[in-house]
Amino acid sequence: MEYRQLGNSGLLVSVLTMGTMTFGRKGGFAKVGDITEVKDAQRQIDMVIDAGVNLLDTANAYSGGECEEIIGNALGGKRKNGVLLATKARFAMGDGPNDRGLSRYHLIRECEASLRRLKTDVIDLYQVHQWDGLTPLEETLEALDTLVRQGKVRYVGCSNFSGWHIMKAMEIARRDNRIPFVSQQIHYTLQAREAEQELVPITIDQKLGILVWSPIAGGLLSGKHRRDKETPKDSRLSQGWTEPPIHNWDRLWDIVDELVSIADARGVSGAQVALAWLLGRPGVTSAIIGGRTDAQFKDNLAAADLKLSAEERARLDKVSQQPLNYPYWHQAAAASDRLGPADLAFLQPYVNG
User: NADP-dependent oxidoreductase domain location, by residue (predicted)?
Assistant: First the structure.
């Protein structure tokens, strides 16, 4: 297992992180949840830790806290092999007006609730799950800073922020001497490469780490979903799960065709190829893998040892390339004479076409 530095911190995390959204079956998460018995969760956690994974990711909103409870009971208050815990807060945890958001009131209360459910005295990475839109960032960052200084949280990160949200937060942290974000958790796959236009460059510029959620697009890049074939009955898609949204199915199937072609030639799964491609992209620290079954976890874990050739990467890049949004298409056409070699290599297909 390879370990990478998490942003501008000294913390090393495995290139694969265990996603636990499948723990619990409450509310809307019944569509993806499958693990309700502590012994089953314990078995899967032991499997990934034994493979070298040192980060478990969850959120208070997953099955209304049940996911965190299952993890806490499975770990029994012990951290085998120095395992790290990451969780998140933002979404509604009750019906009251203050039971959601990124206010100081909500974040501190929910952090303390997560600590109780996880049966731990400290959360290694506490992430704001999504932009609030109401609470001033100064208040949010002060609350996170307080949690770090109280010893309840070690590092803080964000998830699902836009580029300007991140930059505003980083500047406020510098200005007010607050603990800054060390990472962002985002959606980024062969099917969804929008993050390359703002979020990946910001990651590199601001020395953040990238944790990728749903790195095989909710199973769509596993190789099990194919053009003109019936949707697998045990898949998230068949259960009505809508993330990620697919705006161009023909493009998705073209990507899957190339993915499966490479996978078949290598004798591996499509999921492993999709993960290997992602782990080779600039700025990516770790891909969050999940699974309903032990077999799915075992297959995904094998991606840590898969290295794609330059030719294979070029094939996948070509079939998955997306058009640039404004102002990036204008910059690509007009500013290429001022770019460094790495930037120019990324933009060259757009400059030429």
Answer: 16-320
